[in-house]
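Hi support team,

I've been running sequence recovery on a batch of backbones for a student project. Most finish fine, but this one hangs at about 90% for roughly twenty minutes before it completes. I'm not sure whether the input is malformed or the queue is just slow. I've pasted the structure tokens below so you can try to reproduce it. Let me know if you need the job ID as well.

Thanks,
M.K.
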């Protein structure tokens, strides 16, 4: 394993089988939890965006955004050879797995690291174990919640906090025994037009740690690839 891929998705609903990913972010970390690359974009779910009151994404925000198939090759590259990290990571994994399955790609099993599970041991004083409650209990301040990149960056800061305070679980696992599972490869979307027509679109999410009172901004940027 070469490091971590911290992921967050915002979706049109709660079911990976019935709903779609409408925003995705990945923050790559090395073994020392230093940030290597970031990737984030809104996605066109080819239908209603779902609970705008929760994720703050309006229907107009995804007009001109890429479809999942168009960013899938980049996502596969970002996840390859990494421990998948998230706050309730099995949920993020399930949504990504279903999106890849819809385009005929089987996402291989990868090691998972869940900051929610770690926080249950490390932050017993937290009022709850959602990301906002855990970030507050860790003294990291407020953050732009329910933006994919904001949540991914908050998960990174929480992971670093747990390592600083001595959590033995925050380490890269040993390589699995037996033959390696081949990582899928995926070429660009089929036509030249579909490859070029949808630049990445990302909501602004300032990097942490965040001052008390920081709010999640509504601004959109035209591109949010690797930084």
């Amino acid at each position: 394993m070469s490091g971590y891929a911290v992921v967050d998705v915002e979706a049109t609903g709660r079911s990976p089988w019935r709903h779609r990913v409408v925003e995705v972010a990945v923050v790559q970390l090395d073994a020392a939890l230093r940030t290597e690359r970031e990737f984030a974009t809104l996605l066109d779910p080819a239908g209603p965006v779902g609970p705008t009151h929760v994720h703050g994404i309006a229907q107009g925000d995804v007009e001109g955004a890429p479809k999942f198939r168009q960013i899938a090759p980049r996502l596969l590259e970002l996840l390859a050879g990494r421990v998948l990290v998230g706050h309730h990571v099995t949920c993020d994994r399930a949504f990504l797995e279903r999106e890849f399955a819809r385009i005929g790609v089987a996402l291989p099993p990868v090691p998972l690291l869940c900051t929610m599970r770690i926080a249950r041991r490390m932050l017993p004083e937290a009022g709850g174990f959602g990301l906002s409650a855990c970030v507050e209990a860790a003294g990291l301040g407020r953050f732009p919640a329910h933006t994919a990149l904001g949540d991914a960056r908050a998960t990174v800061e929480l992971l670093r906090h747990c390592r600083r305070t001595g959590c033995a679980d925050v380490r890269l696992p040993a390589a699995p025994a037996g033959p390696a599972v081949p990582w899928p490869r995926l070429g660009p979307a089929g036509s030249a037009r579909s490859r070029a027509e949808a630049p990445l679109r990302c909501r602004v999410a300032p990097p942490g740690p965040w001052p008390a009172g920081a709010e999640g901004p509504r601004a959109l940027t035209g591109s949010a690839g690797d930084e």
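--
Follow-up from support: It reproduced on our side and the slowdown came from queue contention, not your input. The radius of gyration is 17 Å. No action needed from you.
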